[in-house]
Design goal:
Layout (H helix, E strand, L loop, with lengths): L1 H10 L4 H29 L1
Amino acid sequence: MLGLLDNGLTQLSVDSYIREILVGVILLIAVGFSALSGRANSHAN
């Protein structure tokens, strides 16, 4: 998935440092979402 994002940004001629920042932000959002959903599931039991 991240490779697809990186390839798409490369096709759009986005600079490499901006691509790295965007990939990092997406990873942080995914980890945060996973942590929050895991916490919600543990409280539901």
